[in-house]
Amino acid sequence: MKVTIIGSGYVGLVTGACLAEQGNNVFCLDLDPKKIEILNSGGVPIYEAGLNEMIERNRAAGRLQFSTDIAASVAHGDIQFIAVGTPPDEDGSADLQYVVAAARNIGRHASTAKVIVDKSTVPVGTADKVTAAIAEELEKRGLSADLCSVVSNPEFLKEGAAVEDFMRPDRIVIGTENSPAGMRAKEQMRKLYAPFNRHHERTYYMDVKSAELTKYAANAMLATRISFMNELANLADLVGADIEAVRQGIGSDSRIGFGFLYPGTGYGGSCFPKDVSALSKTANEHGRDLKILQAVEAVNEAQKYTLVEKIDKRFGKDLKGMKFALWGLAFKPNTDDMREAPSRIVIGELVKRGAHVVAFDPVAMKEAQHCLDLDFKGNPEGLKKVSMVSDPMAALDGCDALVIVTEWKAFRSPDFDLVKQKLKNPIIFDGRNLYEPAAMQELGIEYLGIGRHN
To answer: What number of other Cβ atoms are within 10 A of residue 189's Cβ?
Structure first.
């Protein structure tokens, strides 16, 4: 099938590459010429496991192309995926300007029937706005609005495992209208996703608004579990309980399960923060306060300061002359995404207290440097107190303590004798509970995790 992907960012690239992998002819559009230049020269502007190889394989096979040509992109695909960004607006709502602009471009150039797929994470009612924008442009050209039908097909991709998630999905959600055009669109989507349903049916068909809400509901539920466990972990610290024992005790209940029950330094990234906020804003627009989600957001923001509070308690708030090694910059492992990353809060607060920070991350240091340049804009002296090194052990040299923010596998079994040798004080502040407190005690390492006790 001929497919166009509008937006060659995280979701667009993964979607385009995976659909090409199934034999479709995919045209990826982006209006950023630098991004397209990178892709056409064999590079990939984001880090995602397995994506680079898949893109190169399908480019070589002629099934995947990248361009800035809007008219060509509309002409190419019978199915047009809108996978542009929906960043948070100032009031917390999703900014739909790029979605609507993409829709208008389709309306300006379409001359044959098209299925328009909202792949971007968008609030309930967006499909109506997309439909209206396309119809307005078609009517200007004397064409029927029935030429295009809009479908909601939200993505459920975990950063760091997005290719695997797309190729072997838990579920595929497709929302269509109950109309002749909607039924035709449903059949087109059924054909497109048929290869992903060969083992068993994974597709859930529903109305458009239910599909739009499903995406937000899923992310809000996962964010809620994370904040709930962070609240319990903080309580465990106060009462002397071990949150890992608690996690195993409740996770073994089949009604609860183990997923997303790991306490830490709060969630970040491009999805949970903006999606929880946007869902709350949607509710506000309809006269409803989602009090649980308000609490989820508040808990998460506070949790990003938990490690710094532990450092304050151990060393005091005046950290002048002290130096801290920091392992992990990305908001989660297997990605270079620094959006809403807790590491940015930790670094900012340590520098504010006068400390120097020496950081290491396996893949995110380039993106981290860009983000820290923005965070410390107007504070060049503060930025000078942050350095990055290419080896995790080198980060420890002469530091007063180690702070772990991201749970990369490479951090799970370090040479603890070497860690002790390099640090001035054998102290680890572990924001991801990678190690067992009893084992650390035996090694002579002072260990401060999140809700962990011997």
So the answer is: 21
- Going by their DSSP bridges, the two strands 79-82 and 2-6 should be labelled as parallel
Cβ atoms within 10 A of the Cβ of 422, count? 18
Radius of gyration over every alpha carbon of the chain, rounded to an integer in angstroms: 24
- Can you say how many angstroms the Cα of residue 412 is from the centroid of all Cα atoms in its chain? 23
Is residue 103 a contact partner of residue 130, using CB atoms and an 8 Å limit? yes
Domains defined for the chain, CATH in brackets: 2-206 (3.40.50.720), 217-302 (3.40.50.720), 304-448 (3.40.50.720)
Site of tokens 């880090």: 47
Which residue's entry shows tokens 């350095």?
A: 387
Q: Which residues of 307-342 are buried (b: 16+ CB within 10 A; e: fewer)?
A: bbebbeeebeeebeebbbbbbbbbbbbbbbbbbbbb
pLDDT digits (tens, 9 = 90+) for 233-276: 999 999 999 999 999 999 999 999 999 999 999 999 888 998 99
Condensed to tens digits (0 to 9), the pLDDT of residues 331-366 reads 999 999 999 999 999 999 999 999 999 999 999 999
pTM above 0.85, yes or no: yes
236 φ/ψ angles, rounded to the nearest 5 degrees:
-60, -40
Sole residue written with tokens 């910059």: 329
Q: Which residues are catalytic?
A: 271
Residue with tokens 């520098």: 351
Are the C-beta atoms of residues 442 and 424 closer than 8 Å to each other? no
* DSSP SS3 for 379: coil
